[in-house]
């Protein structure tokens, strides 16, 4: 996984440096061109127009090459630059479409397998794929920067305790926000105009059920988020035949959590931008007074930040303690084994007991 991260950033950077210059020269496919992306103006790159957008993409590609090269050198001097660029690519510049397409991908795949694809349905068109690639490059840079500042050796007991506390609070926030969003959408699906007018609910039509489906996925994610502080998030539960009792790979919990953290934060920042400029209702067809259609999304950056903290606290607990990821409980010795071992001697005392504070 980490080897892939070290390849993604320089490959994306080189490709977009070349493509950005080509788009400046008039090559087709420029994602900042409204003729290519009809929603180009909702992104921070497309809002400047095709020429400026192509120049920005070329500059970002050049900056990515510099950051990738500097991160391969020893030391932490390049970390602030890499983190800034990584956040810009992964969180600030993309918009809500990356999150939407990630959420709808499994649904669309099922419809495709059942031969129920709606007419005109497209999954990951080029403008959205472009944003997804940009997001992936940003995440790759953040992974490299994280590796550059990783401390040698396990953290002390005080650090572990602090991160455990932070993790619990972060999980509480990362559960509350999506559940609150889901509550509003479920109310609409039940024909209850919670936080919106009756006329607006009627205008939504069947779209209310799509919102409820996304809300249900958020609730599912919230349940999985609880695993970051629960034992079943470390050891597969008994009902999982073939996996029960085995350790949950750290990456299986942290990678999806961080992907969601990045995409919901990016979408939330876009919603906040439109709310501040007064364009939210105009962009998404929400009239005045429809607070439940707007307010939940404004908390998404908080959700993303909390999820990022929770996933890091989980990683610290699993990998940073200097002990096995999951303690293996040993059965007590039988009477015969105890007799063969003889009376306990001083060196039979566990080493941990000798180092515990008095």
Automatic annotation (TrEMBL):
<protein>
    <submittedName>
        <fullName>Uncharacterized protein</fullName>
    </submittedName>
</protein>
<keyword id="KW-1133">Transmembrane helix</keyword>
<feature type="transmembrane region" description="Helical">
    <location>
        <begin position="169"/>
        <end position="189"/>
    </location>
</feature>
<feature type="transmembrane region" description="Helical">
    <location>
        <begin position="47"/>
        <end position="71"/>
    </location>
</feature>
<feature type="transmembrane region" description="Helical">
    <location>
        <begin position="7"/>
        <end position="27"/>
    </location>
</feature>
<feature type="transmembrane region" description="Helical">
    <location>
        <begin position="250"/>
        <end position="272"/>
    </location>
</feature>
<keyword id="KW-0472">Membrane</keyword>
<feature type="transmembrane region" description="Helical">
    <location>
        <begin position="292"/>
        <end position="314"/>
    </location>
</feature>
<feature type="transmembrane region" description="Helical">
    <location>
        <begin position="78"/>
        <end position="104"/>
    </location>
</feature>
<feature type="compositionally biased region" description="Basic and acidic residues">
    <location>
        <begin position="332"/>
        <end position="350"/>
    </location>
</feature>
<feature type="transmembrane region" description="Helical">
    <location>
        <begin position="124"/>
        <end position="143"/>
    </location>
</feature>
<feature type="transmembrane region" description="Helical">
    <location>
        <begin position="209"/>
        <end position="229"/>
    </location>
</feature>
<feature type="region of interest" description="Disordered">
    <location>
        <begin position="325"/>
        <end position="358"/>
    </location>
</feature>
<keyword id="KW-0812">Transmembrane</keyword>
């Amino acid at each position: 996984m980490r080897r892939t991260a070290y390849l993604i950033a320089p490959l994306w950077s080189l490709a977009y440096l070349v493509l950005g210059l080509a788009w400046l020269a008039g090559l087709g496919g420029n994602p900042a061109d409204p003729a290519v992306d009809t929603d180009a103006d909702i992104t921070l790159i497309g809002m400047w127009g095709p020429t400026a957008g192509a120049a920005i993409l070329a500059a970002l590609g050049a900056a990515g090459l510099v950051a990738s090269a500097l991160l391969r050198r020893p030391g932490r001097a390049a970390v602030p630059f890499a983190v800034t660029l990584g956040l810009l690519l992964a969180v600030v510049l993309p918009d809500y479409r990356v999150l939407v397409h990630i959420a709808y991908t499994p649904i669309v795949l099922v419809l495709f397998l059942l031969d129920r694809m709606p007419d005109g349905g497209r999954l990951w068109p080029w403008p959205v794929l472009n944003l997804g690639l940009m997001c992936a490059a940003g995440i790759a840079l953040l992974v490299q920067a994280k590796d550059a500042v990783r401390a040698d050796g396990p953290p002390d007991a005080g650090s572990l305790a602090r991160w455990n506390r932070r993790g619990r609070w972060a999980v509480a926030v990362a559960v509350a926000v999506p559940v609150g969003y889901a509550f509003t959408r479920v109310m609409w699906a039940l024909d209850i105009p919670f936080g919106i007018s009756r006329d607006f609910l009627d205008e939504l039509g069947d779209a209310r059920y799509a919102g409820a489906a996304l809300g249900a996925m958020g609730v599912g994610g919230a349940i999985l988020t609880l695993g970051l502080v629960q034992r079943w998030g470390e050891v597969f539960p008994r009902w999982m035949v073939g996996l029960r009792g085995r350790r949950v790979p750290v990456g299986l919990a942290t990678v999806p959590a961080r992907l969601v953290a990045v995409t919901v934060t990016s979408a939330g920042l876009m919603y906040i931008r439109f709310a501040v400029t007064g364009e939210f209702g105009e962009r998404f067809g929400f009239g005045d007074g429809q607070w439940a259609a707007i307010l939940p999304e404004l908390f998404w950056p908080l959700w993303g930040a909390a999820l990022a903290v929770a996933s890091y606290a989980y990683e610290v607990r699993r990998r940073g303690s200097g002990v096995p990821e999951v303690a293996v409980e040993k059965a007590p010795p039988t009477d015969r084994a105890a007799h063969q071992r003889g009376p306990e001697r001083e060196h039979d005392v566990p080493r941990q007991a000798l180092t515990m504070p008095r």
